[in-house]
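FORM 7B: Structural annotation worksheet

SECTION A. Query
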Amino acid sequence: MTEPAITPDLIAAHGLKPDEYDRILEIIGREPTFTELGIFSAMWNEHCSYKSSKKWLRTLPTEGPQVICGPGENAGIVDIGDGQAVVFKMESHNHPSYIEPHQGAATGVGGILRDVFTMGARPVAAMNALSFGEKDHPKTRALVHGVVEGIGGYGNCFGVPTIGGETRFHPAYNGNCLVNAFAAGLVDADRIFYSAASGVGMPVVYLGAKTGRDGVGGATMASAEFDDTIEEKRPTVQVGDPFTEKRLLEACLELMETGAVISIQDMGAAGLTCSAVEMGDKGRLGIRLTLDHVPQRETGMTAYEMMLSESQERMLMVLRPEKEEEARAVFEKWDLDFAIVGETIPEDRFIIVHGNETKADLPLSKLSSEAPEYDRPWIETPAPPELEPVPEIDPVDALRALVTSPNYCSRAWIYTQYDHMVMADTVVPPGLGAGVVRVHGTQKALAFTSDVTPRYVKANPVEGGKQAVAEAFRNLCSVGARPLATTDNLNFGNPEKPEIMGQFVGAIKGIGAACKALDMPIVSGNVSLYNETDGQAILPTPTIGAVGLLDTLDDLIGDTIREGHVLLLVGETQGHLGCSALLWEVFNREDGDAPPVDLEVERRNGEFVRANRQWINACTDLSDGGLALAAFEMAVVGGTGLTLDAADTATLFGEDQGRYLISTSFDKAEALMVAAGQAGVTLTTVGKVGGDAIRFGTSSAPLDELREVWSGAFAAHFG
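SECTION B. Predicted structure
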């Protein structure tokens, strides 16, 4: 087959700028082959190289006594004691999910699960963070159905509980939805596997499913804006098979027990290219691949197609040669392909041979660790205009507007499509602030949450970045878990626009400050840029996934509220309504500043809640919707009415940070008041539990009526 001529149009179609192509010419001293152009395109795109973000990612706190492995590997690893560790990461599959919702979301789940089990961990929990356009947009309904079905179909068949997440709707996502997938697994701390190749002349082995043409160019597509040619990109979306992935998991874990594995890497973005290059580069070795040995499910595949295919359920491994037959037997037992496709070499080269012809011969390190890195121009996000006066409104009417919105109604329509009880270790199911999973065979448990408030980040990236981490911290503290560490999924628009890059820089500064102050280092993550359509960017959405530890299930703070309980508020209320849920849902406004985050207060209040859990019957943090929405959600879970003393809009719906709502008995409330005084924590009585209605001052509505509209609103919107 004759390869196409390398023209300026072909270079541009591969996402390479003219100066980047000039750099390629300088590196190799000649015109690249078509396959080489594809390899450079895959490795130098934003999705794989992080060329616009690396400078700023280095400023994040990534270390701590609990951290075993920080950023740079397939996933982060944190010590949980007793020789055990939790492995976790969050990644985006935004562009594929907008083009082909079901497969895009499904393969996002598959990819993040592979990131976890390639390190030797068995997955125990999954979450997802979803952002869609406005509910009446013509694409939103199909996207919601396709994405939810894709996530549920893959996770349920694979057999991992989906125990948390978040979903939002906003016009800024009309042309570019976000699908962020999180997975966590458990591993023995002395049985962790890494991706750096070692040893010269070691066999490079292809494992798993066969290679097809699906996903060719997927990483490059994910590193570009959308326009009216979006339908032409459909073939770049991968196709997943969760049953094959389940077999791949079991085969990999069994293989790891044999001692055959030197290093292992999943084939995700840019497939065979990225996995081979990253393994070689981390081990400071070269790689030679012979593509004739690659298992293929389609005939006549070219070197270009095989190197850039993103077919799913595949791994690449460097193998101990004396263990070849033992390793092969494991994969044949699981009915998966096992093929030696190359070897490690001492030279800094990436050599691709197909049909006895060298299709690529490149300096390997120039593709990865020495890829381009940019210090993009950025401008600080200007201070938002002052908040215009917010009219007083009947508080129950305002609550009704929130609980019937797709942003704040029950998401049971979504999470009941996910199996959250598989493996039988789920302690706290989806629907609350944090999901909790027992560490099997122990009394320990892990708590998981995912948080960000994009409207805050748009108004004030620094405070919005802080708030995303602080809310994750509060969600973990609310169930009694000690926050351990975080992963991030940084979703932004086009970084070549200084105002977008300014949002990114500001958010990184806020996230970094909060992670440091709250002792929640970033151990893994993902950057997703160019989330724009026709020049319109999404809201800046730096999603924070966080993990916390319960040393014993006795430490779990429950959700029991009873008639006669006292409602206590931890933290101070100033009545901050800028960028609030009330402002958006009731008045269709987004003005004002994001609420300020006092990280010292956040830490003190969270530690107070955890230290005094024995006096707390139920606890929830306050975030969107303030005190009113938190109290309603507590009442729904507890199945009983309640009364808040306040009736004014700012007190009920203000979104001041660092606050928790506690329900407890009168005697325990007295003990908490004493403890709060000793700890220097603000604790006030704000209401009481009882009756069959939600009452704010003199305004009230039956709990059953509000619960009915809250529970049915999502289905009413989306069917």
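SECTION C. Observations
The chain has a mean pLDDT of 94. The longest strand covers residues 122-132.

SECTION D. Sign-off
Analyst initials: ____
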